[in-house]
Predict the structure.
Amino acid sequence: MKHKVSEIIIKVDEIEVVMMWHAMWHSMNAQQVGYRLSWVAMLIRVVALVYAFGVLSFYPHPIIAARSDALLWLWVAAACYTGLLIVVLLLPINHWLRTTPFIALDTLIALALVNRAGGGYRNIFSLYSLIPSVTAALSLPSAEHHFRRAMLLGGVVIASTLGFGLSLYLDGYTPARIIELRQVDEVVLRSASYWVTGGLLAALAAMMIAWQYSRDRANALREEAAIEEERRRIATDIHDGVLSQLSALSRRAEYASLL
């Protein structure tokens, strides 16, 4: 018996937690959703930095070891930049991190970081180079114009792909050499990673936008129903209260005229 009671209590607690989370997400506006998604993008950015640091510190490759100091300074620059963004995210001006100028600037910085690494070292910051696409995609639900932000996301993906191709070309990796070195698969996968990341996150953002639209529509219908119910109540009060009093006064006036 006690076991069943404890199971019921646990289920009730789980239901309360689910209802609490549902109420929290249900009551958030677009800017609040965008703020939380900005933290998600920032967490992914930090994970990318941890990955790069792990490769620099624990990957026993002589080529990386030969340029470890220069690559470490690049990592420090990226870490300082990320720290600055975290500070901005904690300030009231955090909405700037979801604007078009910042996303464009972030894309340029990520591409500059990858190109500065150069050669085979660009793979160290490969995950970090996906961050602009992540940021642009996760800013879709809070954007004022969803179509324009979707176009911006497409531009970021194209710019990232072209920037990666340019870095290969500047390092002497022409199409003929890539074929000769049998690295076509790697180049295609790296280029496709920008499109896959942007596409998947854009689909997720589209689902969130649809959810926001349905939520706002449901709230509007509830408000209309509440207004209509209030009108009915007022009409009923007028009919039952004021009209009945007027009717009583009219009857009293008639009785008084007969006296």
The chain has one domain: 2-211. DSSP finds nine helices and no strands in the chain.
